[in-house]
Amino acid sequence: MHKLDRSDIALLREVTSNARSSHVELAERVGLSSTACARRLAALEQDGLIEGYQAVLGLKALGLGTTVMVRITLDSQSEDALETFERAIIKCPSVVRCLLMSGSDDYLVTVIARDIEDFEHIHKSQLSRLPRVSRIQSSFAIRNVVNRSFPPAALLPPDKGR
User: Fold this and answer.
1) Measured between alpha carbons, how far is 60 from 72 in angstroms, rounded to an integer?
2) How far, in Å, CA of 49 to CA of 28, rounded?
């Protein structure tokens, strides 16, 4: 396991806010040489602390203005039921996230759609056809307030921000 020091934490903060920064830009902001910065980033990637980089797309600009949170309950919580459902939902092209949950719902699924009519089609052609599903409940997001891939407080010292 990689023991994080101040420079590693500073690098992680910087790449989570702007992953397109060059090594030179990152090095200037965290007080390292660009070579040291590149070496540290490579180590963070190799140790699994940075799993990848991705672009955040403008969903509305792409015509995808509707986010739907879907709570799914299966007919059984057996290992076979869970595995069967998970293999199937991975193939649903409108699903952007699926979480196995504790509590009364088995899964929380995030679906991105063009509009309510598009979601109706997704519900009929994808979600309602998933195996082992006994109940589907959907909630439409009104507005995105916070959308982070990582909580900034996790990179603060334990006595600050938590």
Assistant:
1) 26
2) 21
Fold annotation for 66-140: Alpha-Beta Plaits (3.30.70)
What DSSP state is assigned to residue 61?
Answer: T
- Structure token pair of residue 126: 């994808």
The domain 6-55 is classified under which CATH number: 1.10.10.10, 1.20.1250.20, 3.50.50.60, 3.40.50.720?
1.10.10.10
C-alpha 28/C-alpha 156 separation (Å) is: 20
| 21-79 per-position pLDDT tens digit | 999 999 999 999 999 999 999 999 999 999 998 888 899 999 999 999 999 999 999 99
Per-residue tokens: 22: 């060059």
What's the whole-model pTM score? 0.83
Kindly report the CA angle at 7 between 6 and 10, in degrees rounded to 5? 85
